[in-house]
Amino acid sequence: MARLRTARRILVGGAALAAAGWALRDVPAELGVRPLTSGPDRVARMRRSPQFKDGTFYNPMPESTTLMTTPPAGLLRELAKDRDQRRPGGPIPLRVPPTGDPSPTGLNVIWYGHASTLVEIEGRRVLFDPVWSRRPSPSQLVGPKRHHPLPVQLNALPPIDAIAISHDHYDHLDMATVRSLTATQKAPFLVPLGIGAHLERWGVPAYRIIELDWNEEAEVAGLRFVATAARHFSGRMFTRNDTLWGSWVVAGAHKRVFYAGDSGYFEGYQGIGSAHGPFDLTLMPIGAYSPAWPDIHMNPEEAVNAHLDLGGRLLLPVHWATFTLALHPWAEPVQRLWREAKARDVKIVVPRPGEAVDTDGAPAVDGWWETLG
């Protein structure tokens, strides 16, 4: 009997190890590639960038953008406190996106959750920072879990004309999503310098990768894409800032969109607005802020400041609701945004995930999150 129990423990332990090994099999690929080892052409372009020096990219803003290197005092106590407030108090309402053809002259937008957003501009579709995995992590065993399902499966997306990535953090660049989009769509990926090395490792053909430095531009499907500045950082675990981060201007013949990606507030938004605005729609991050990292994520009031600097007409908040990435309460970002927008007469729209918004007739804010906060 003892031998049977021992054998059973060995079998169970072996099965657990095998399962863990299977779950972790993609981690090396998830970590991506060091771009400086990915080929002479890419390396030469990176080294020519004004944002690159001493082997890494950096923020040229004069203020400090250094992340904390040691946990702030009381962090563990804060993590244990008010945990229930950092997730919704019930199911987040979803909407099923429409499937019809986009308007050849209009501007519609569908927010899928977190930063993943589909913009339909003058008959073309642009997908920003698509992340369809359950966790924004190198392993689906660890990391923050989704607070809501995706409103639509990847293979049910309509034909996409361009996929724009802001930077290589896991909640904005997801290997599984990239691989699926590579197989199911024909759209090129527009990325900041260095990120193409990750995409190539994950099977994206080189002809579908457009890498740009800040202030460089490309035309795709009749739309003008401009890579613009952001105040952030990059890295997928062991290295930091070996790829560039950024924001995006997408301009059609008459409509213009700005996507901020992940960024702290900085004075450069005024210059972006002067050079490329005004914008019919801005997609602005409002969540995952903290006094511990004030320079690399905006808070809601700063998002309104940036929107005004850009000359924005309608603001749609992103980077909230889907993953818990900071200590603030789940609904606090959008509640603060709504209060600030009303105080400064800024027009905002806060759709449910999957809800389609026509920017020429955006619905009034109805506070749908208030019963969940």
Descriptive account of the structure:
The chain is α/β, with parallel strands linked by helices and 373 residues long. 24% of the residues lie in helices and 17% in strands. The chain is built from nine helices and 15 strands. The strands form three sheets. The chain has a seven-stranded mixed beta sheet with strand order 8-7-6-5-4-3-15, covered by helices on one side. Helix 7 (268-276) packs parallel to helix 8 and helix 8 (300-310) crosses helix 9 (332-343). The radius of gyration is 21 Å and the shape is globular. Mean pLDDT is 90; it is low at 10-23.
List the helices and strands and how they pair.
Layout: H1 2-23, H2 27-30, H3 40-48, E1 52-53, E2 56-57, H4 75-80, E3 107-113, E4 116-121, E5 124-128, E6 162-164, H5 175-184, E7 189-192, H6 195-201, E8 209-212, E9 217-220, E10 223-228, E11 247-251, E12 256-259, H7 268-276, E13 281-285, H8 300-310, E14 315-318, H9 332-343, E15 356-358
